[in-house]
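Lab notebook: predicted structure, single chain.

Context: the supervisor wants predicted structures on file for every construct in the current expression panel, including those that have not yet been purified. This is the next one on the list. No modifications to the sequence; it matches the entry in the shared construct table.
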Amino acid sequence: MGLDEAIVRRAVSAARPDRAPVSADETAEVFARAAWSGIAEPGDGVAGTLVAALGAAGALAAVNEEHDPAGLAHEVGEATGEELTRESMRAAVERWRPRLVASDALRFLTSAGARGAALLVPDDPEWPAGFGDLGPHRPAALWCLGNAALLASPLPIALVGARAATGYGEHVCAEASTGLVDRGFAIVSGAAYGIDGMAHRAALASGGATVAFLAGGVDRFYPSGHDALLTRIAQAGAVVSELPCGSSPTRWRFLQRNRLIAAASLATVVVEAGLRSGSLNTAGHAASLGRPLGAVPGPVTSAASAGCHRLLREFDAVCVTNADEMAELVLGPQEPLVEAASRQEPEATRVLDAMSSRPRSVDDIARAAGLSVASVRSALGVLELEGLVSETPTGWRRP
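Prediction complete. Output recorded below exactly as produced.
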């Protein structure tokens, strides 16, 4: 884009301070992905196909150098086997051209660095593996505030639902989020009012991992009423967007953001939703990606649950009512701990009741169970042989 290489390298380093030094080609590729995150709208399949065929830097150069759309379409077909028409390529280039400003990409990177946000690209270990299922609609890059490693959590599950949630929906969501965190899941959602916010809050309150995907830049927390919540998520979890700093949330971007929530998760659960709830869009993305889909039933008289009932009736969603059933969407049927414990001595049952997925010392378990330390040690030995507990460097936990 006609920029000095040293300037580009400094800008990339500002948004990737913990990354090892990269070559000039790698720097150019990362810079181009930052640029594409602001050039193409989320989910732009033509941009995704072009980047897949030529690489981000090659695609950016081709557009900047005004390559013939027919030639570009042919080049993409040769490289990927994907067929793009001259007209679709020409229309895409016309969409992108107003945003082909070299200084914008520099601004994205320096703004991210100043905000403490990190730029992630597909080669990074934190990149969600599930994004590969999005094909040409996967994001060019991600901008992340907080612990980016949570994006590679082994057990991510999406809890989504209505903004205008009822007390029933928020209660079920809080119980589910807490229970899933106790089972080692990371809670993924969109930080909206209602169900999304409750899912994040309950995960944070339980000391669990949570990831919020935004429809605008990570420097513009939205909704504004969740500024404090998103600040907490950025400190203890991760706030993520495919759009660069300064980007405004729009209706289209909300709908496209939902595909990231579904793709980043191993399963999606709609906790409460009316017939027009945006969470049904997330459910649609999950279904199209082949992800397990769960829906929580509500009162048949409640319009706030009508969307969930439609998912159950028309879209083969699985009826789920608690954290155990939601976990089964990912892990398959599990023997309830209470049944496993029933085969043990009463003291072992009390020890299991006193434990969670977070490590606890023997003394802590003894206090919670109301047993002697010696009895707890004996019970833990038996439970470990059954595979119901495991010892870690910081204590004992349920797997």
